[in-house]
Specification:
With about 280 residues, the protein is an alpha/beta fold. The protein has two domains: about 5-105 and about 180-280, 3-Layer(aba) Sandwich (Rossmann fold); about 110-180, no CATH class. The chain contains eleven helices and ten strands. It has helices at about 60-70, 95-100, 120-125, 135-145, 150, 165-175, 195-210, 220-230, 245-250, 255-260, 265-280, and strands at about 20-30, 35-45, 50-55, 75-85, 90, 105, 180-185, 215-220, 230-235, 240-245. A six-stranded mixed beta sheet has the order 6-7-8-3-9-10, with helices on both faces. The protein has a four-stranded antiparallel beta sheet with strand order 2-1-4-5, covered by helices on one side. Strand 9 and strand 10 form a beta hairpin. Helix 3 runs parallel beside helix 6. The protein is globular, with a radius of gyration of 19 Å.
């Protein structure tokens, strides 16, 4: 019995990536040829879709992003089995730059800005893989400043001197400068005030709706992720354990207990639920 099919509250019909979207099938990743980080992960992000991947620290979410963006080698990791395709083309043999040129861009966990460069210079980095004119870059910069007027007046200031929320706006803006067809947001809410998180997710949702940009959010903040995405996957110890429409996941007992505040700090109840869940799924 598969883990996902055992969940009563969640839909088991995965969205199809078709020929244009992101498709991950049976993905296994190891670090240092010893530590298995992903175990047979399969998921899809249709062209123009909005999908969330939820899970606690250590669930394998960041490894998943590294596999998609071809940055596993930086961390002594490699794909041992499975496939990652976008638009029907394999990404496993492409370099990280080629992945960006294919239309996939990342807003990395922790923002990863160049703190000594100005806001404007950080944004221009996002267009560095594209063959565009200076006039095109200037026009796209103004578009980003229209999207984020909070940083427009600070374009000549060092990015490292800005608040966490402003830095996250720069990180999203940098990704937009690459003109992505699919934006991967890794822990977009990390360390930010709830109001800033709300505004950022609403902006990403607007880009998804109005411009057709696909979105894959990797989040611990399940509540906000499920409010904005259409479909979701829950990862635990390197595996997808629950998947379904965002609406069905919001009603799922397991997701409510572990990710929407139901468990609280009741350690005994937590352990009992884990044991019952794993027993019911043959784990």
């Amino acid at each position: 019995m598969s883990t996902t099919s055992a969940r009563a509250g969640a839909s088991t019909t995965s969205p199809s990536a078709g020929t244009d979207g992101l498709a991950i099938r049976g993905l296994e990743v190891v670090y240092n040829n010893a530590v298995v980080a992903l175990r047979g992960v399969s998921l899809s992000v249709p062209e123009g879709g909005f999908v969330s991947v939820l899970g606690a620290n250590g669930a394998g979410k960041t490894t998943l992003v590294r596999a998609i963006t071809n940055l596993l080698f930086v961390h002594d990791g490699r794909v041992r089995d499975g496939s990652v395709t976008y638009g029907g083309q394999s990404l496993l043999d492409a370099g990280a730059r080629a992945v960006v040129r294919a239309g996939i861009c990342q807003v990395p966990e922790g923002r990863m800005l160049f703190p000594r460069l100005t806001v404007d210079e950080n944004l221009r980095v996002g267009a560095s893989t594209r063959k565009v004119t200076a006039a095109d870059v200037a026009a796209e910069l103004e578009h980003v400043y229209e999207v984020f007027p909070q940083i427009a007046d600070r374009r000549d200031e060092k990015a490292g001197l800005m608040s966490g929320g402003e830095q996250q706006m720069v990180a999203v803006g940098r990704a937009l400068m690459a003109k992505p067809r699919l934006m991967i947001c890794d822990e977009l809410s990390l360390g930010l005030a709830p109001l800033i998180v709300k505004d950022l997710f609403e902006l990403v949702s607007q880009l998804n709706r109005e411009e057709g940009m696909g979105v894959l959010v990797i989040e611990q903040n399940a509540r906000v992720a499920l409010q904005h995405s259409n479909y979701g996957y829950v990862m635990e110890t390197g595996k997808v354990v629950v998947e379904g429409t965002s609406a069905s996941l919001s009603e799922d007992d397991y997701v409510q207990e572990f990710y929407l505040g139901g468990a609280g700090e009741a350690k005994d109840a937590y352990e009992e639920l884990v044991a019952r869940y794993r027993k019911g799924n043959g784990s």
